[in-house]
Amino acid sequence: MNDDSRDFRRHLRQTMSLPAVMIWSRLKGRHADTPRFRREHPIGPYFADFYCAKAALVIEIDGASHGQGNRPARDEVRDAWMQARGLEIVRILAADVLHDPDDIVEGMLNLAKARIRERRGG
């Protein structure tokens, strides 16, 4: 990672949206037996809101702007690029996170565990 992308990642981590902060605050203190997620993780030319390497899982938190302008088309291109590299992308509405962040995090962890089992062939 070059200095520019490192600086940009730092900026993203410092300016996370409220729904992303709510998720991160619940993920960062997890026990060793739960899947590990990284926040604002670089993947090629993109940054994933949350990424679980063992599960090859990308979680994106979509606010209202994701439905405006050229954003849906850009998200499609980004998702296709990641899927071509074997990653699963799950998009979660920010409003759903605000409504029940604990349920969202539990779902993320369950999906990651299932993907890890699947990737191990069991």
Automatic annotation (TrEMBL):
Pfam families listed in its UniProt record: DUF559
Domain of life where this protein originates: Bacteria
Example of a GO MF term: endonuclease activity
Database matches in SUPFAM superfamilies: Restriction endonuclease-like
Keyword field: Endonuclease, Hydrolase, Nuclease
Keyword Nuclease: yes
All copies of domain DUF559, residue ranges: 6-110
Classification via PANTHER family: BLL0828 PROTEIN
Name of the protein: Very-short-patch-repair endonuclease
Taxonomic path: Bacteria, Pseudomonadati, Pseudomonadota, Alphaproteobacteria, Caulobacterales
